[in-house]
Write a structure and sequence with these properties.
single chain, 96 residues, alpha+beta, Arc Repressor Mutant, subunit A, three-stranded antiparallel beta sheet
Length: 96
């Protein structure tokens, strides 16, 4: 995978090569600094309780659960999503 900074206008000096088998999503400068800790918290919560919703993730200041789940999936964790309906709409529940 090659990432080129969008503001670079195609200059190859800012291109970064990643080997997909050795990719660490936290090496990506676009990942916010707390993401690694939040991913660990999300994974621990799912393992302890069986699943997690965005409301539950907010209890440990994780306000971008879908982004953290994406990071965990990129790291190889088999997280699945189910949609749950309720009065007023629906929400996602993530589980292993």
């Amino acid at each position: 995978m090659t990432y080129t900074d969008p503001g670079d206008q195609g200059a190859s000096r800012n291109a970064v090569q990643h080997d997909a088998s050795q990719r660490n999503v936290f090496d990506d400068p676009r990942i916010e600094p707390r993401a690694e800790t939040q991913c660990a918290n999300v994974l621990a919560f799912i393992r302890r309780r069986g699943s997690i919703t965005a409301r539950e993730a907010m209890t440990f200041n994780c306000y971008r659960l879908a982004a953290r789940v994406f990071d965990l999936i990129e790291m190889g964790h088999p997280i699945k999503k189910t949609m749950e309906s309720h009065d007023g709409g629906q929400h996602a529940r993530y589980h292993l």
